[in-house]
Amino acid sequence: MAKELKELTPRSVSYSQWYQDLVIKADLAENSAVRGCMVIKPYGYAIWEKMQRYLDDMFKETGHVNAYFPLFIPKSFLSKEADHVEGFAKECAVVTHYRLKNSPDGSGVVVDPDAKLEEELIVRPTSETIIWNTYKNWIQSYRDLPIMCNQWANVVRWEMRTRLFLRTAEFLWQEGHTAHATQEEAVAEARQMLDVYAKFAEEFMAVPVHKGVKSESERFAGAVDTYTIEAMMQDGKALQSGTSHFLGQNFAKAFDVTFASKEGTRDYVWATSWGVSTRLMGALIMTHSDDNGLVLPPKLAPFQVVIVPIYRNDEQLAQINEKVAGIVTKLKALGVSVKYDNADNKKPGWKFSEYELKGVPVRMAMGGRDLENNTVEVARRDTLTKETISCDNIENYIKGLLDEIQANIYKKAYDFREETTQKVETYAEFKEKIEEGGFILAHWDGTAETEALIKEETKATIRCIPLEGDKTSGVCMVTGKPSAQRVLFARAY
RNA sequence: CGGGGUGUAGCGCAGUUGGUAGCGUGCGUCGUUCGGGACGACGAGGUCGCAAGUUCGAAUCUUGUCACCCCGACCA
Within 7 Å: CB of A84 and strand B? Predict the structure, then answer.
């Protein structure tokens, strides 16, 4: 298996296939019987669960609570916000009937034509409409605000072409939906959640991201402003990894959600929504993986350490079992998750390769020599280096090593991103450099026409207008018109 | 929806001019092994995507059909 993987490197033209192979071989997910839908396997789901837990904690810390809204949305709800329906109509699954019956010719079941729904139900592509229809009943006074709900859910978007984790017909995500009395508060909330996402990406996933604002053409359907975090993959393509939207009063107006203000006026509510999905799994895989397989950050690995015994007979295995048990206990006491794999149906070499493929951050191997010397062999997944370490105080060494690996893979990804980011002054230069992949920082006149032209001619899009970094003005590389600041271009997933 | 490709054992594949269904891996049992994907022996595992046609005979030829994959178009 590893050999097949080695034939394709992360920078090759068949990156997409290399990626999909890796997802399957590392046991993260597989295609299902339903077109475009994905089965997330236990190992992959364990990573997602960790992501969920950390994100959920961060949401709670910033004052949010969880709730759950229905999977089905009446068709009429979706059409209330004009831009919103425009953006999602083309990819919605629709429920038209509520019953099956045995087919008259006995060949199975058919949809019962008598069970046609009066109003069709849409399988949610996102929940703004059903939630705002609900919030309307929750909000009367400024005293009811803010409402800060999040839901963990699945959504369905009937995409033409799908890719495991990056774009699937059904995906898991969280969506936060908040309602506020003032514009300032709503904008601050949208910005705050963008910061939460960026922090999560960088500190937990070890994925460096650019925070920024989307241009009008890339904005969420129904939003006033869309904030985004953009990451760079190893093949030079960008990945939108999370979004936070300032929705203005668009949904409040569409669903007639008003409140009595302190001053006695009747005002429309200000809104935000924000979400990250299982697409983050794709970002994680494509940012860190190498030719040997996955590389997982210690904070998200289902288990951080795997211990492999190397033995000649049952007696030796028993000695190793005992020795390892002591180490496992000490590691667990420090909060390190460990798997001891003493299964006897696989050889050590096989296990080494397998756990590399699965991205386990640290591998420890203990054999006869180690028993004699009171040592253990420690191998790092990020650097693929090995060293022999004394068992005394090994738990603290490992604990420190995990932190070092977490920091190192972030730095590696950060350096890669910086090396592949270029500043460009002319459009001719842009057309040349965009072929190399990576981000390009260039001036743009702010018009949708120029943006569309660039996309048409180079397939590159404006990933975002960065919130941080160089803010000096200049002139548009295409039209020569004034530009307030450089914007971030790339080809994207 | 356009262009290309693939459907044969759990997985990955071969199958020439139409003539007994194969290989690798995995799986089961036994033995030797075990510091980077071990080896030997024996064994189990098949509606060749589906349907029709040509033929004495079809995995192979013809027609139809279905599914999946890749490249585009599309995509908070």
Answer: no
How far out from the chain centre does Cα A60 lie? 19
How high is the pLDDT of residue A4?
A: 34
Number of residues assigned to chain A: 493
Query: What is the spatial distance, in angstroms and rounded to an integer, between the CA atom of A22 and the C1' atom of B45?
Result: 28
Nucleic strand B contact set for A 90-119 (CB, < 7 Å) = 90-91
Handedness of CA A96, A99, A101, A107 (dihedral sign): positive
Name the residue closest to B1, CA to C1'. A160
Helix (H, G, I), strand (E, B) or coil at A380: strand
Cis peptide before A113 (omega within 30 of 0): no
User: Quick check: A23 and A29 in contact, CB under 8 A?
Assistant: yes
**Which pLDDT tens digit goes with each residue over A4-62?**
333 334 444 467 878 888 898 899 998 887 778 888 999 999 999 999 999 999 999 99
Torsion of CA A424, A427, A429, A433, to 10 degrees: 80
- The whole-number Å distance from A108's CA to B58's C1' is 32
Hey, what are A49's tokens?
């669960």
- What count of other Cβ atoms lies within 10 Å of the Cβ of residue A447? 15
Distance CA A68, CA A127 (A): 10
Alpha carbon of A18 to those of A2, A194, A353: distances in Å? 12, 31, 17
Scanning residues 472 through 491 of protein chain A, those with a beta carbon under 7 Å from any atom of strand B turn out to be none
DSSP-derived pairing of the beta strands A147-156 and A65-66: parallel
**Global model pTM greater than 0.90:** yes
Distance CA A149, CA A130 (A): 13
Distance A10 CA to B63 C1' (A): 44
